Amino acid sequence: MDVIACTRLTKRFGATVAVDRLDLRVGAGQVYGFLGPNGAGKTTTIRMLLGLIAPTGGAIELLGGRLPDPRLTARTGSMIEEPAFYPWLTGRQNLQVLAATSGGVPAQEIGRVLGLTGLSGAASRKVRTYSQGMRQRLGIAAAMLGRPPLLIIDEPTNGLDPSGIRDIRELLRELAGDGTTIFLSSHLLAEVEQVCDRVAVIVRGRLVDEGPPAGLGVIRRQVRVVVDPADAGTAARLLDRWPAERQPGGAGHELLVRHDSGRDVNAALVAGGIIAESVIVEQPRLEDRFLELTAEEEIRHDLADAG
Amino acid sequence: MTSLMRAEFRKLARPLVWGSVLAVAGFCVLLTWGAANNARDGLARPRIPDVCGHAATAQCRHVIAQAHAAARAAAAATSTLAQPGEIGHVAAGMLASLPGLLLIALVAGGHWGGEWGLRTIRQLLSRQGHRGLVLTAKWLTIWCAGVAAMLSCWVVLMLAGPLIAAGAGLPAAHGGLWAGLGSSAAAAGRAALVLGLFATVATAAGTVGRGQLATTAITAGVFVLALLLAGIASVGRISPALFVQAWMGFPANGYLPTSFWSRSAGSGQPIGQLAGLAWMSVTAAIAGLLARWRFAADVTA
Fold it and tell me: What does pTM read for this prediction?
């Protein structure tokens, strides 16, 4: 069953299209990454999922029901951007207030989420005295209150130290293991690579790629070729059937060829009488792929504007 | 709804609200103390025209006697109003006029507009998506803060009023405690409805201003504008300030000021008390509809 299903979801603010016919499917128990540059429409999408803003077009199904339905959004744990709390209340009181807002939870549930996020010792302190990392932990604790079947979390490790980041990632994996579906928006691509089962990339409000993190990289492998500096010109000519670029700092003898077969590249070099120092097939990291997709979409958009 | 109200009351317990209630109660005590001192000074130095200062004419003797009588009447009235039963009129009048309006504007700014300022509105609405319930809970808590402030003022004045009157050497007051309490309770009931109107406008102001300062400014600004309008003959009859004036029956003048309203709203355009209530209800309904309409819009805080 899809826990989140967006069909041609669209949001316009005046003439600006923030989200453009977005189709998303998030299955139960998945950790689903949601990536995009600033202004891509990630937060707007999340706000629509939580019923804070109304879509201009399309439909959202959440937890098996169609939005808008306050009962469905109340069953969703969320943390949007920087978590916000009432600074004159303690951490525990903030959680009590949030729990009561949605109908209440057993008293021990608040202790449980404070313990999971390592905040038991600071629960009686006013939130105004919390560090950014502690607020972030409290935001995650608030999202987990009442064991919601779906968590929608924006930048969960902002402001956390390395051990805190590790703890939160482990916690997210544990939650996913228990069957909680997690929709994770993040600009930390390494985080998404490590934590997520599937990833959607959104640029200018449009979905430009979707799949397992490793799958996104496999689509465009590349071959790194190192040749003797004296052979650099010949090698470049032999490989000019594929897009290639000389690598800066490589003294002119290192080429990056946009092709997914090292065998093809090596065969072309050998046929031209060049023996390479090394031919390495690289799987670009998600970060590289993400930047590439973003750039492609920007160019496509600029061309559309020019046309 | 019970659980939501519990959450809202928990949020309401904050220094801003305590401070505002304390300030209003302190203001009421200061006002009573000032009025008692004025009455004492009036007894000691009645307002006698200069021309009668040395003249011993029959006319002057009459004027002087009248001045002494007026000073004694003022002192007796002030002393009576300062007694535990009657002093509820002061608390009700203050909370149903500018001090109460300011209190509601400040509380609404922090409690409702602040949800946008702190960006906690996102958490609130994602956990409680029934926006009508959220609006109702906010209105109810703001109104409760106003009523609680009125009752606090009353209790403080019940203790302080007799001491202030005795300290100023005012004549002993006559009149039954229970009759005074009944009369004060009726005034407090009327004031509670005015506080309901203030709270409704403040709730609507929160949905329009979407920030602490904006909510406070819009709430106070609406009624200050209404007070100014009430003083203009051509449009005064449609001013909510006049509706409040008619419903509360604020006197244009009094020995101990029982409101900060009538001097601004004027008294030259009378409408009946029930008409005042009816038009207050219409004003509140319009504000309520505005709040529902504005709060249905996207929340992008």
Answer: 0.82
